[in-house]
Amino acid sequence: MPDFLLYALLSGLGVALVAGPLGALVVWRRMAYFGDTLAHSALLGVTFGLLLNVNLNLAVAVGCLLLALILVALQHNRLLATDTLLGILSHSTLALGLVMVSLFTNSRIDLLGYLFGDILSASAVDVVTVWVISVLVSALLLLLWRPLLAITVHEDLAHVEGVPVTAVRTALMLLMALVIAIAMKVVGVLLITALLIIPAATSRRLTRSPEAMALVASLLGALSVAGGLGASFVWDSPAGPSIVLCATALFALSLLKRADG
Amino acid sequence: MPEALLSARGIAVQRGGRTILHGADLTLEPGKIVTLIGPNGAGKTTLVRCVLGLIRPDAGVLERRPGLRIGYMPQKLHIDPSLPLTVKRFLTLGGKPRLPLREVVTLTGIEELLGATMSNLSGGETQRVLLARALLRDPNLLVLDEPVQGVDVTGQEALYQLINDIRRQRECGVLLVSHDLHLVMATTDTVICLNQHVCCHGHPDQVTSDPAYQALFGEKAKPLVAPYTHHHDHKHDDHGNIVDLDNTHDHA
């Protein structure tokens, strides 16, 4: 296997590992649109990272977090529904990112790579970064798993039972921002949510407990990464979209199974 | 008189410059059931949220007995069908149970539901599972928000009976929010009739003959009565206004 393919596979698998449990939470909590909005703002983070010459992963994670905080602040304005606010933020940050990229970076950067992923150019350093963040986020998810499930089921009930609801919810946003930062390399800002929700949705039809759903989602994500990269290698198709299509194919297959539970 | 589990005095809550609740007093004692009634928008939920510590009142004093453990049964539970959660798993989501799971499961009669998926339960089943989760904390105060919602009539009676048994056995205080006056009255020790402030309170007999109560729920004040309490009015109309409630109470 050529080096570039090995690095691509390893970084893809690293993202798939954490995308399983995180994606399951996104599906249960109906946060798909929220994830999209965070991901779209990632491009803005990239631009600022390039302008200020800081680590891009860090810039993206910080950018996503700032956006999440803006959203929380805007939610106090009760005139507009959350999905309207998300739509405004999602598309204006994407547009701003695109404008900033073309104005300030002399088009030195590969815009398509950020939008749709550039996994085939992953380096050894990328692989290490992905795995460090993936393992860290997975560990934190494991640690917070019961409170996360509790607030997903009923926030007030969890609060009365002693769960620090706001802290747990903020932690989830932070973890999501970190995962978006590493997933951007694999499938790009426009397709990150797909990598989170499609394997989890497929997994729902195959499993009967929250933990099984999260683990099987990781496995399905890993399969999609391997399949997508294989397809990309054989047919020279773009890698990120191929990975997403592979996940979709698995979802379509799962529809053949009768849903139970 | 036993030491109060929780006492609230002069509770006031404002939201967006509008007063939702003012001067509300409430005392909860071990082994006693307090029922909160009142039309929609009367501030019942707001007062309950203060008791639960979910919101901080803008004015007033709220004292909890040290070591107070609240078992809370929320009004509604919506679990996304995408979350494969069995009843057994749901029960342990509240942390390590303080009472034996089997004991609580038997008491609430949900033995056969343990393996079922939460999102497939009927209204009555969901309510009993929620009650079981509240009981697993071995609470000294139970807060039940509209506990019989979505439960059929025979189930309602059984559920109230169960709540009544529990407070006798466990000596825990109960705060109940309800608009189903007829069934509630039989077991309630104190009724608090709320309409942004405490209109009247006391034993059910006292309250139902109180002019403030009659003004709130009787014929004269029909426009004030929220849609969902309306069906009580119809029942009143059939038999004559307050007499109906008194009869119900005498039967019980």
How is this structure best described in words?
The complex is a heterodimer of chains A (261) and B (252). Chain A contains twelve helices and no strands. Chain A is mainly α and 261 residues long. In chain A, helix 2 crosses helix 3. Chain B is globular. Chain B contains ten helices and nine strands. Chain B is an alpha/beta fold and 252 residues long.
Descriptive terms for the model:
heterodimer; A: 261 residues; mainly alpha; 12 helices; 80% helix; globular; B: 252 residues; alpha/beta; 6-stranded mixed beta sheet; 3-stranded antiparallel beta sheet; 9 strands; 22% strand; disordered C terminus
Write the layout of secondary structure elements.
The complex is a heterodimer of chains A (261) and B (252).
Chain A lengths: L2 H26 L3 H21 L3 H19 L7 H23 L6 H6 L7 H20 L1 H9 L1 H6 L4 H23 L4 H13 L5 H26 L3 H16 L7
Helix pairs in contact in A: 1-6, 1-9, 1-10, 1-11, 2-3, 2-4, 2-9, 2-10, 3-9, 6-9, 10-11, 10-12, 11-12
Chain B lengths: L5 E10 L2 E11 L4 E5 L6 H9 L6 E6 L5 E4 L13 H6 L8 H8 L14 H13 L5 E5 L7 H18 L2 E5 L3 H5 L4 E5 L3 E5 L1 H5 L2 H7 L12 H10 L3 H9 L1
Parallel strand pairs in B: 3-7, 3-8, 5-6, 6-7
Antiparallel strand pairs in B: 1-2, 1-4, 8-9
Order of helices and strands of chain B: EEEHEEHHHEHEHEEHHHH
Trace the largest sheet of chain B across and list its strands.
5-6-7-3-8-9
Largest β-sheet summary of chain B: 6 strands, mixed
Q: Report the uncertain regions of chain A.
A: none
- Tally of DSSP helical segments of chain B: 10
Structural class of chain A: mainly alpha
The general outline of chain B is globular
Short description:
The complex is a heterodimer of chains A (261) and B (252). Chain A is mainly α.
